[in-house]
Structures are given as structure tokens and as C-alpha cells.
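User: Can you model how beta-L-fucopyranose sits in this protein?
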Amino acid sequence: MKLKTLFFVSLLSCIMFACMGNKVKEPKPCGPLPAERQIKLQDMEMYAFIHYSLNTYTDQEWGYGNESPQLFNPSDLDCRQWARVCKQAGMKGIILTAKHHCGFCLWPSAYTDFSVKSSPWKDGKGDVVRELADACREEGLKFAVYLSPWDRNHPQYGYPEYIDYFRNQLRELLSQYGDMFEVWFDGANGGDGWYGGANERRHIDRKTYYQWPETYKLIRSLQPEIVIWADVGTRADLRWVGTEAGYVGSTNWSLMKSTGDVPFEHLHFGVETGDIWVPGETNTSIRPGWFYHQKEDNHVKSVAKLMDTYYKSVGRNSTLLLNFPVAPNGRIHPTDSVRGLMFARMVESVFKDDLAKHAKATASNERGNSRRYAANKVLDGKADTYWATDDDVTSATLTLDFGEPTSFNRFVAEEYIRLGQRVKKFALDALVDGQWVPLKDQLVEHGDGLTTIGHRRIICFPTVTATQLRMTIVDSKACPLISKIGVYLAPELKEEDYRTSLKHSSNLNIAFPSPKTMLIEVDPHKAISAFRYFPPQGTDKDGVATHYSLWGMLPDGKWEKLGAGEFSNIVNNPIWQEVKFSPVNVSLLRFEAEHLESGERLAYDDVEVVHSKE
Ligand code: FUL
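Assistant: Here's the modeled complex, given as C-alpha cells:
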């Protein structure tokens, strides 16, 4: 009799316990939520950009729109090589510049002759978009296109008729080449150009001219799952992070405001109180420029630099869009290809062995004391399970006990973002020889501690040997939901590995007779053939020359104009700029800033004069 009672009591408590687990309510969503297409994109983590156009043949970053299609004649164009290179670099898809600002189309558009149709390549019968779309499918990569809204070739750019042209081209691209994962609308808009021979400056209102809401409807009707990228205040799915240097803010909310201006701070850090879900995409090039330039063959980013970029993009709740330029022969340069491969190997080796896997996880609070939301859910490798606290608990600790002294220097955390991005601030401590030691993010620019997590946050710190690791959620918008914690030991990279060998040092005599004029003393006995300008590298753009003229003083004391023009894209990508001219002997160079991005005074980080035999 007694045994029977005991049996029923324990059965009852088992049932009650199980019911309790099931009865614990799922946390409520918090703030704006991601759409399925946005989650899929963030899960891709890294994908490639390919910049290729007439610029490849004119050695420019921005074509003016009057370049001859005859220049497009690659001897060895091989889209399969591009796809292989990108795949082995760990990229999950490729976005191709189907049309850059010069207006030249890499596909035979029915709406213009300014395309591969008019080039000698394959007797005008080729289609780069088709070849790359096929190559991507063969390699198991996703495919997407960049279609520049700004078109410096089109006669009607700036007028309403151009919008029909733009939409017709979009329709062609989005209906003839299969599924696309993203569509990229560059923000460089309006300015001077050829415009069918008008050779003038055309201004547009970035917010209204393109009628984005209508265009978005068209896109969604053609490709419902596509992710729309933009850098303006439109209701896009994905946002620019405000710089092309390869990093997003260490605080990075996947939220934006649906109305109002979009200042740099919003792009770079997201908006904690935002009302729409728009995660950041960090775009940068494996070389200084977006297009191929032979003079950059020795400036391909090092593996250390690429790892730094990875930590500051994928490791900061962003995706990484890494550009591989195609060389004039129609292939990705071997240096870029090998560097990409080494980068992927490094990412793989850092993250292959998760030291947290065999640790024991405990937490200061587990939602409803339920197993479903227990601390060990952060270690089960499943994306749809998570550790959660009770609704009213927005600060809590989660501790990993390794059981023995363990060395590590990387920490990974992921939030269950399907129910919103929540964590505002957290801290990490390691138990070293019985003492709790705080761990700081080595890569954070401002010392404001550890803030957001989102899709994935990676924290890098010098190697510690500890028996336990404690994550303290200091503040969260609602109960925190953490789906993964990982701990790794990466090879330490030395400080010098981070340098990109971009900075030259000159010892020229320089004077400023007026705020926008720079005079440089030159040896008149040595002919020179180029001048190089390295703009200021800080975040404010004061003093950056976007347009210039360059003059040389001849032996008779007269000034000769050696060049004039614009430094394309210098504001977003402040790399070395080169002005080439026929060899000449001069005693002085006069560099005039015809237009400054902001400020009143021409600024520079370095300048160089190239002697004609260099
Ligand atoms: C910029 C453009 O102006 C560059 O040429 C490049 O395409 C880059 C990805 O976006 O804003």
C-alpha cells in the first residue's frame, strides 16, 4: 500500500514538473522583428562583391559615361574562376556590378547600346551577368546584382524619363537571371557626367527622384525573397554602415528610424529606439580601390587586416560584403585569390574548436525554472533554442565552468533575434587563479565596455587561462534570450600585421600660400610623371579635396596645367589618389583644391611626386 502511494506521488510530481516546463510562457517579442529574408541574409555572414566595368580598362574608379565600349575586350574572361575564388574565400554569394556609375551594362540590355553588345568581346554576343549567374549556381553560391541608380551616360538622367529606363533595367535583371539574394543601389547620386553629350552637372533629390516606394513594389513583385540594400532613409532591408573602410560600430542595433534623416551615427551604430529592422552590411574591398588598378597589386589586404575586418563586421552583428576586383584580362588577380583563401582558412581555424562545448553552464535565473530555457541551451548547437530569464529579470549572469584551467582569447555570443534584439550592455570576467578578472574587447574604439550582441558578437582579448568564464547581462530591453555562447583560442596577431602598407612617407618641402593651394618643391633636373595625394584618414571629412587642378612651374617661370578633375569616391574610400601626366621638368607643383568636401582648408595625410623612371 505504502509503495503504491509512493509510486503515485512521484508520478504526480513528475507530471507536475513536466507541465511546469511546458506551461512556462514563451517570451514576448521585443520591438521590431526581422523578416525571414533578413535572417537568411545574416546567416550567410560573408558574401563577395565583384567590381568590373569599363573602369577596369581606363584605370578609373568612376567612369564619366563617355568611355568607348570598344575598350571592353577581356582576353580570358572566366566567371567560373571568380566563383571558385569567392567560394574558397568563404563567401556564400556574389554581387556583381551589372551597371556602375558610367552606365555601361555588363548584360545586353534591350534599352541601351551602351553595353557588352557594342563591345568586341564575343563579337557583342556575350553576357557577363548570365555567365556569372550560371557559374554561381554551379558552385552552389547565391547571386545578386548592383545596379547604379546614377548613370553618367544616360541623356535623360535627372529627368523623370530616366526612372522608366532604370526600372526597365531592373525588370530585365530581376526576371531573366533566376533567384537573387540581394539588390544593391549605390548612394552616389547626381553630379557631373557626359549625359549623352551634355557634359554638365545634374542635381537630383536623393529622397524623391527615384520614387523608391514604387520601385520597391516592383522588386518585391519580381523577387519576393530578395533583400534590398540602401544607404538612404528608405524602408530598405539592409543598410550601409556609413564607411567603406570595413567596420561597423561596436554598438550595433539592427534597428533604424523609418522617417527622418539618416545621419552617419544611425548608419554606423543603428538606433536603439528604432522602429524598423534594418541590419547593417559592412562593405569593403580586398584592395584600396573597388576596381582593379595594377598599381595596387602590392596593396592587397593582409590576412591580419582581413581578420580585423571580420571581427569588426560579422563579429559586430553585421554581414561582410568583401570586394574582389576583376583585372583587365577578365580574371581575379592571383594575389587576391590566394589572400582570400588564406583568410577563409584563418576564420575556419580560429572557430573550429569550441572550448565551451564540454563546459557546464549555470545561470543566476532560468525562465520559470524550466529546462526549456536553461543555461545549457547556449551550448546545444541549435539555433532555435535559447537561455532566457523571467520577464522581469533584465540583468543576470551565465557562468561556464571548464572543469580545468583552459586558455582562450575569443568569446562569441548570439541572441535569438527572431524575438528582437535586446541586450544593451554586458560584461565578461574570467576566473584566473581564484580571482575574477574582467575581459575587455581589444578592438573597441571607445572604452564604453561591451554593449550590443544581436546576430553575433565576437569579443577579442589577450589570451587568459581560466577555470570559469562569466557573462553578466548588465542591461537588456527585456529578458535576454541567448542562443549561443562559444569560446575559442585564436593565434595571436601582432600589431604590425594590421598595417596595410598604405602610408608612404615623403620629405617634400610644402607650403600653403592660400588655404586651398599647396605648393610642392620639386627637383627641376628630374622629370616627373605623376602626383599622389593621400587625404586625411580621420572620420571627419574636413579638407578632403574632391576636385582639383594641378599645375607645374616650367623653367621659364610659367605655370602649365598638368591635370584637373575629380577624385572619385574619395570621401567614402579615402585611398591614395594619383594624377598622371606626360613627363615634365618643373621646379614647383601647385595643387589646387577646386572643391573641398567640407571645411575651408585643404588637408592631407601625405603627398608624393613620382619621377618618370619609377
Ligand atoms: C560607392 C561607389 O561610388 C563605389 O564606386 C563603389 O561601387 C562602392 C561599393 O560604392 O559608393
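A couple of observations from the model: The chain has a mean pLDDT of 92. The chain has three domains: 36-350, 355-497, 510-611.
User: Helpful, thanks.
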